[in-house]
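From the shared-data thread, chain only:
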Amino acid sequence: MPRLRQFSAFCRPLLTPVHLAIELAHELAEYLIRRYPTTFHVVERYDRESLSKANGDKLDEYCDWGWDGQLPIKAIHVAPLDATHTLPLHVNDGERAPERALKVAASL
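Structure, as tokens:
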């Protein structure tokens, strides 16, 4: 019987649930700003310097969280609620980053 190879969505090592929580928030934010551009707006994106501090020399770890070659979203604004949400970049991005990411995803 052939062995099955496991791949994640972006052909990198499989992520843990805490990593996936943060990635979910980023993917949802990217989708919403394109699907509902009058409701959701990007306030700020991470810059390359933030990415290099977060992950040493491995910029590609978080760079693919932005769509169309853009960097990941740092803050998203929901116009009808006049609320701005900051998305954590990685598991160690402040206290309880995975939980904060899920709260942002739920509120979006």
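Strands lie at 40-45, 73-78, 83-86.
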